[in-house]
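Chain A, query sequence.
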Amino acid sequence: MNRREFLKKVAYGTAAAAISMAARPVKIFAGEDKAASYPDLVAVRNGEPAQLFDKGIEAFGGIGNFVRRGQTVLIKPNMSWAVEPERAGNTNPELLRRVIEHCLDAGAKSVSIFDNTCDRWRDAYSRSQLEQTGREAGAIVAPGHIEGHYQKVLIPGDVLKEAKVHELYLSSDVIINLPILKHHGGAGVTAAMKNLMGVVWDRRLYHRAGLDACIADFCKFKRPTLNVIDAYKVMMNSGPRGNANSRYTEPKMVIISTDIVAADVAAVRTFGAQPSSIRYLTRAGESGIGNMNLDELNVQRISL
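Chain A, predicted structure.
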């Protein structure tokens, strides 16, 4: 099925096979024996953003175990807010640059980035410095503010039953989720799972229907190939946008995992909260979306 046929079937809900294909987990490694030799989650600290990612992805055998030559890649950063990088409201630009470079070095046909922003999109794309950084690194900076780029799909959730999802999220061969860890006034903490709100057209739907339930439900539809959480500088209050009174810590960390729930558990612990206190995370764990028990996983902790 080509991209046009896939989007048409998903848009009109006429092919259960298309939805099934979207929800199917992406095969990451070439063989089960090879996959078993790599960690489930890597946490790297005490370095600069590019160094942290270099070391973390090395532990997985390199980005080539996720991105094949000729594939299309979507990197979904958080670039929702019209604030400068030092405010830590959006993904660190240097981390984005390094992830793009790795993907292109692996032979990706194209690398795209976008976000359905909360602040005015032109201001958010510009002041976050992610638009400029993305273009400089060789990525396509796609619009996230045009409703026509979103296609209606069915969501197999308890509360979230359907949503308009950006065509790049539906059609890209590889999806790399690249959020920043920070405080969130509604959800408590935002990281990998909540970052996917930026691929949905009607963000207010989540708030009307139930924020925590919708965050968890969306992950039953199609999960990213890889989650890379920016925990270099962490906003501890007044999130998600932050203000002049925001407090910060600097773990100087990046968390990488194929398991979106495990990634968020590690991120929430880094934030200093209990994972069991984050409702969308417990819902996701109970639904079998991922593993909340890091003791059951192969976790590597690396200090530079």
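Residues 1-35 have pLDDT under 50 and may be disordered. The CA atoms of residues 138 and 184 lie 31 Å apart.
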